[in-house]
Amino acid sequence: MTLTLSFWNWLLALSPVLVVLILMLGFHSGGGRAGGMGWLAAVLFSILFFGAGFELLAVAQIKAILLSLDVFYIIWMALLLFHIADEAGAIRMIGRALLGLTEDRVMQSLLIGWLMVTFIQGTGGFGVPVAVCAPMLVAVGFSPIQAVAMASLGDTWAVTFGSLGTSFQTLIAVTGLPASELAPYSALLLGIASFPSGLLVAVIGNGWKSLKRAIPPVLLLSVVMGSVQYLLATNGLWTLGTTGAGLAGLVVGFLLLRLPAYTQAGTGRNHTKPLSELPLTGDHQDDGKSLWLALISYVLLVLLAFGVNLIKPVSAFLGQVRFTLDFPEVATRYGWITAGGPGRVINIFGHPGAILLYTCVISLIIYKAAGYLQPGAMKRIFTKVTRSGVNSSLGILAMVGLASIMLHSGMTFLLAEGLSVSISRDFYPLVAPFIGALGAFITGSNTNSNVLFGALQQNSAQLLNLAPALILAAQTAGGSAGSVLAPAKVIVGCSTVGLAGEEGIVMRKIIGYGMIPIATIALAAWIIHLIG
Amino acid sequence: MPGTDLIPPKKRTVSLKARAVLLLLQVTLPLVLFLTLKWDNPLPATLVAAVFVLSMLYLVWLG
Description:
The structure holds two protein chains of two kinds.
Chain A: H1 7-26, H2 31-50, H3 54-87, H4 90-99, H5 105-123, H6 128-139, H7 144-154, H8 166-175, H9 179-206, H10 211-234, H11 241-256, H12 291-294, H13 296-310, H14 312-318, E1 322-323, E2 326-327, E3 330-331, E4 337-338, E5 341-342, E6 346-347, H15 352-370, H16 377-408, H17 411-422, H18 428-443, H19 446-463, H20 468-483, H21 487-495, H22 503-531
Antiparallel strand pairs in A: 1-6, 2-5, 3-4
Chain B: H1 16-36, H2 43-62
């Protein structure tokens, strides 16, 4: 039992989310401030209107910390790996290699704004793909606004299984459903979304006239990347879903460049600068380095992740040390009960974060031995990781706390109940991706959207007798597409191409285009539901 | 390379150290709370919870 469903009670349950929404959209607050205010609102309203007591709030917050630690493990290690590779010159060298391969504007757009973005999202995430690829696009002659828009929209489909699957891991954690149930629909919907994502990159970079030229390579590449992601995700390797898809996309993209049709200049409307004039090629700090050795960290990551996940004795050995806490049953004054039992279990040495840590250590040793790290590299890596990690972690912690309190006090259930009675069963799959996108747009994170709305969507699906796995897949796929449209991420992208303070122009450009992948996901989820 | 500098210049003015300490506090306090909840005396748990709420207010102030 919880409070009786009425419009005012429903509005009260929604209030903490509204606080976050108003602060972020109306007052342009960051995730930390908005999340903190939302958390305070959740505490206050849960006590005043939903009958939460001290013990319930304490249990909810401690569980939230366990969940946050699980996510932080990946976030911090992913950031560490990215900055180690960046210091070794891997990111610059990949960019240079891509630029020298083709004069075709459509293929340049796709290689950097879609395939490269996808690959970096695989391990980098948190705004890193746009921040890295937007300057590369500017370097080959696209305008800064085009560059941020292309890199952002190229990322729409790749977020859920990116960053070593942080968002997907969170969805598993908050819903309690196994990866084997969630992965097939999630990978399918995201794979479908990759097609409009690639087309939008080509269109923004080269105009609608380039659409015809872009369709064949985009279709081929989206089928390849979508299939690889599906196979990885449904075979227990969801942590490598986006990395594998990005790698496969790059390999097939390079093979396409062997065809004369995609090597020479196409019909793009931008002037192509000579390679010698590009900023990336004017940089000589990576002269004499081997591209393959620079890429060793990503090769190691793939090998270790595959090894740990596929070799059972290794997986069993590393899975021996686990951390969790045992919680008592708690209830609100209105009788909303949360069962007792262990919280989130963290597998210390077999966790995706641990795999990243092993990769970081081995990569560091190799790069040091090869002389790829300049003096002061360790300090720079530490500073960059801390700066990005602390800021994102504070926001996530507040949002996770907010979501956990709402869940334990019955607010999330009331919201779900309200949605399920106001939206008919047959149309809910059409709405679910937009709820996910809204959460990600508000919080700037697919992960946070899954934390905020994962349980809500699950409850709605159960109340409407819909397949929870499909609705949750629609939630996270919508969250993936919505997260790249978030003001927080657009600000990061703009800051790297000299557009600081002009984010509004970019936002106006990408919001409309960004609705296309979300609508595609909604339509696909609806059709799957109708087919049954 | 400019592409790897992820934090907009305006936000650098906020102390990273203060944020790092705050994060550490917000992670450890609930774990301490878990221990104090098992004690008969409710005062330590109340104090820890109060400090956590203050830390959240500080986060709101920091932005």
